[in-house]
Amino acid sequence: MKTCLATQTITIPEGVTVEVKCRTVTVKGPRGELVQTFKHIDMDIRRVGTNYIRVDLWWATRKQLACVRTICSHINNMMTGVTQGFLYKMRFVYSHFPINVALSDGKVEIRNFLGEKRVRRVTLLPGVEYVRTSDVKDQIELSGNDINAVSLTAAKIQQTTNVRKKDLRKFLDGIYVSEKGAIKKVEE
């Protein structure tokens, strides 16, 4: 059975400008600008008045209806990114061999994982900043405006430290995401 019309609206916060043209959404805010194209999904994305965006989907099946909420979540994440930004904290877990992580030429280099000589390298995606935390031991922070880039970089770092050919219940070594979310504003 198809649904005649599925509609969802998004409220635009203050300080953010949104342009919609041919299913390409451009969001500008105090932290920068993000552009995302949704041409792979056949739906109407329109600006309604000055404070709202409306996403419409006509005659859709159940699977197509799920895309309406997904597109709205993407646009909301873009608005959060240009106002607050996103932060992923990752902790090193090791039992014997200390993991050594450093940044060189836009690549995160992971050394001495399980005592191996192999150097693992992960390229930082554009717009992602890497910081080695000074107050907490064995922690790195990845931050940026685009949640897709920040989370994908964190996932690549975590997947490069997968333990292979060993009992995963015993060998828990790796670099794992310990905290994630929007950057909290510092109260003055």
Explain what you see.
The chain is of the alpha+beta class and 188 residues long. It has two helices and 13 strands; from the N terminus they run ββββββαββββββαβ. It has helices at residues 62-83, 147-160, and strands spanning 3-11, 17-21, 24-29, 32-37, 44-48, 52-60, 86-93, 100-104, 107-111, 120-123, 129-132, 139-144, 174-182. Strands 11-12-7-13 form a four-stranded antiparallel sheet, with helices on one face. Strands 1-6-5 form a three-stranded antiparallel sheet, covered by helices on one side. The protein is elongated and about 60 Å long. It starts with a strand and ends in a 6-residue tail after the last strand.
The Cα radius of gyration reads 20 Å
Terminal Cα span:
55 Å
Strand element count: 13
What's the helix count?
2
Shape summary: elongated
Going across the major beta sheet, what is the strand order?
11-12-7-13
Query: Helix/strand/pairing class, anyone?
Result: alpha+beta
Q: Which sheet architecture does the biggest sheet show?
A: 4 strands, antiparallel
Helix content: 10-25%
- DSSP strand (E) fraction? 35-45%
What's the order of the H and E elements? EEEEEEHEEEEEEHE
Low-confidence stretches: none
The average pLDDT is: 95
